[in-house]
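yo

u said u wanted the structure for the complex thing, so here. seqs first:
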Amino acid sequence: MIKLKNVSLVFQGGSVAVSNISTEVKEGEFIYLVGNSGSGKSSFLKLLYREYIATKGEIEVANIDVSKLPKWKVPLLRRKIGIVTQEPQLLENRNTFENISFALEVMGCLPEEIDVKTNTLLDLVELSDSAYKFPEQLSGGEQTRVSIARALANNPIVLLCDEPTGNLDPDLSIQILSLLEKINRAGTTVIMATHDSLLVNRRKKRVIQLSDGKIVRDESDGSYIVR
Amino acid sequence: MGKFSYVLKNTLLNMKRTPLLVFATIIAVLVSSFLVFTTLSARSIVENNTLRWQNGVHVVVFLDDRVTTTAHKQLETSLESYPEVRTVDYFSKSEAEEEFRVLFKDQTELLAEVDYQILPASLRINLNDPSNYKLIIERLEGNPAVREIRTSGEAIERLLSLTDTLVISATAFALLIGFAAFILLINTLRLAAYSKKKEIKIMRLIGASSTYIRLPFIFEAVIESLIGTSIAVGFGWALIEYSKSSVVADSIFDITISDDYLIFLTLSLLMFSIIFGLFASFVGIRKTLND
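structre next:
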């Protein structure tokens, strides 16, 4: 599903974001990407959806060679990926339903199809009762769930979440993780970046720890405990 | 169909967000296009008229009464032998008087006071190439049968030179206003793109192509440009129609311009306005999309 081979990312000016990373993610896996701020988690994810271009190495996502992908083909890659950012990036002048349906509208779905899919997604993220609320009327957790629903609108094969619980309290964070695991059980590969060690310890999933842009630990059996 | 309706909906939404800027842009495009349309139409009218005049009499040789009619005839014969001369018509003193009476028929006092004996006979020359009028002057210089030579060439040259000056001035002005329209259009698009920055960011994450993201802005620019140009062309056609029935039309100036030329001019301007809109949209949102 996802392969990285000797991948490095060096910004202009010489600061190293990712250093010689090699790893593989299988279809249907759920991975927590952990590390301190500046350890390279976001850069790792951005390399996968070609927001950043690797300085060195090879990246393959869903059989697409991302490292050699021309700019005009990037949208084709992103249609296979769902992206959830730390800030939910909701449109203030649109309600929950419209924020989710926006993705479908942009992809050119027909109105009937948009209605059905949006309602399904609202059910999935348990926001049917808040369908007509605007972002400012939603809690942080609800906003994140809207953002997740929108990322799922394209039926992505992999969901990349960059600290979606970063601004949430522990209870709400657990709700989001449960939702992501539910999505994962339905077959979508999920990679979630977080710096919340306690949260990861409880979930018993594969964990990749980054430090200074390098993979320092990769525990696949759920035995990972952040000390 | 779904994608097209999204683009169309967003194009109209963009235009609704900044109505004053959209209005200002359309007005600037309108003024600029109107100037181009009227300038080019006017130039065509002047060219038609000068061509008509040039096909008439190019050189008038007033003959000296003191010289015999035989000398006049000899002069006519030698003029006819010149290769640059197409035709030579002899205009007698009585014909000159008749013409004078027709030309000044409304000025009875003048007609009563004029001594018609002073009106000279003349030779009216039509040249193969009207620009050769100076050659005729040179050939006739010092000829005792010639009293005075008048040419239409100088007048036509002066008129064409004046027209050229007017065309250059109007074109420069049209370009200036066109540039203002371009800046306005770019700013309108930048504002629209800026207000949709978050939306654009989400679209890029979802996997919308750059062209698809650009389309509402491209449509907006082209629509505004086309509206301005269409109104300008409409005004231009109306102005020409009005001129045909106005005082100007009663003068020596012939307000005729071929429909083919007007259609060509209209289509060219509309085509240019589309290119103008496309280019403005390309420049206007390039930065926002690259951010």
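Chain B has two domains: 2-53+157-290, 56-152. Chain B has eleven helices and four strands.
cya
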